[in-house]
Amino acid sequence: EVQLVESGGGLVQAGGSLRLSCAASGFTFDDYTIGWFRQAPGKEREGVSYVSNSDGSTYYADSVKGRFTISSDNAKNTVYLQMNSLKPEDTAVYYCVAAADGLLWVLFRYDYWGQGTQVTVSS
Question: Sorting pLDDT into bands at 50, 70 and 90, what band is 76?
Answer without folding.
Answer: very high
